[in-house]
């Protein structure tokens, strides 16, 4: 099935690995969502709200624009 | 697959099973005569009870298979639910107008009742289908 990707890109997978191999389940627990939602965000299938984006950046201990991007000049997924 | 996606599949499946049962029972009870002559109100009540039982049993099984996530909705679940309800609302509105039109022309109450019932079922199926599509394909929001 053709999967739609959002315009928001992210480096969550890369940053999880950098921050001591944090698992999707651990990140999900930190930000209070299901693991399936983390999978959907990482895969570009779901754009989180601004509040959740800040929570993810905080959990990864990175500034928001290092985790998420939009259009040109966005971080590589 | 998240609990809420499984839940949407379970309700949609239950609704389809009960709808098929209702339509085939109506057709068999009519037995070649005009379908509007069938006493449908009892069938509707049985259908509602059947749907409640099916939905309850499937959700008990879903909750038992993954107790941690049962009943817990996150941001994505809430957004997809809202979008589903929004899309389903158009179908319900259209069906309600149709039922109103039938009442205005003083159609048989069988057709008025069944057009309302059809609108409720179709709007719920549209809402659930929208949610399932969003869970499967993503995007849109």
Strand order of the largest sheet of chain A: 1-2
Overall 3D form of chain A: globular
In percent, how much strand structure appears in the residues of chain A? 5-15%
CATH architecture descriptor of chain A: Orthogonal Bundle
CATH superfamily of chain A: lambda repressor-like DNA-binding domains
Helix fraction of chain B?
over 70%
State the low-pLDDT regions of chain B, or none.
none
Report the count of strand segments of chain A: 2
Helix-strand topology string of chain A: EHHHHHE
Low-confidence stretches of chain A: none
Number of helices in the DSSP assignment of chain B: 4
Radius of gyration of chain A: 12 Å
Gyration radius of chain B, rounded: 17 Å
Instruction: Describe the main β-sheet of chain B briefly.
Output: none
Please tell me the total number of domains of chain A. Answer: 1
What assembly state would you assign to the polypeptide chains in this entry?
A: heterodimer
> Biggest sheet of chain A: strands, sense, closure?
2 strands, antiparallel
Range of strand content of chain B: under 5%
Structural class of the secondary structure composition of chain B?
mainly alpha
> Mean of residue pLDDT of chain B?
91
List keywords for this structure.
heterodimer, A: mainly alpha, 434 Repressor (Amino-terminal Domain), two-stranded antiparallel ribbon, 2 strands, 48% helix, B: 141 residues, mainly alpha, 4 helices
Structure commentary:
The complex is a heterodimer of chains A (77) and B (141). Chain A is mostly helical and 77 residues long. The mean pLDDT of chain A is 84. Chain A contains 5 helices and 2 strands, in the order E-H-H-H-H-H-E. Chain A has one domain: 434 Repressor (Amino-terminal Domain). With 141 residues, chain B is mostly helical. Chain B has one domain. In chain B, helix 3 packs antiparallel against helix 4 (109-137). Classes of the chains: A mainly alpha (77), B mainly alpha (141).
């Amino acid at each position: 099935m053709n999967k739609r990707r959002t315009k928001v890109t992210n480096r969550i997978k890369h940053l999880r690995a950098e921050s001591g191999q944090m698992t999707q389940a651990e990140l999900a627990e930190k930000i209070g969502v299901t693991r399936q939602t983390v999978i959907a965000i990482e895969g570009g299938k779901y754009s989180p709200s601004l509040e959740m984006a800040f929570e993810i950046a905080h959990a990864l201990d990175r500034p928001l624009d290092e985790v998420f991007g939009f259009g040109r000049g966005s971080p590589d997924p | 697959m998240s609990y809420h996606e499984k839940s949407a599949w379970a309700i949609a499946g239950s609704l389809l099973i009960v709808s098929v049962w209702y339509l085939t029972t109506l057709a068999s009870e009519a037995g070649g005569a005009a379908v509007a002559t069938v006493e449908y109100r009892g069938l509707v009540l049985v259908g509602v009870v059947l749907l409640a039982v099916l939905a309850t049993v499937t959700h008990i099984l879903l909750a038992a298979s993954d107790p941690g996530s049962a009943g817990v909705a996150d941001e994505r679940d809430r957004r997809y639910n809202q979008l589903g309800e929004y899309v389903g609302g158009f179908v319900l509105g259209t069906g309600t107008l149709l039922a109103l039109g039938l009442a205005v022309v003083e159609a048989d109450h069988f057709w008025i009742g069944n057009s309302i019932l059809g609108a409720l079922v179709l709007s719920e199926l549209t809402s659930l289908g929208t949610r399932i599509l969003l869970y499967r394909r993503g995007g849109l929001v």
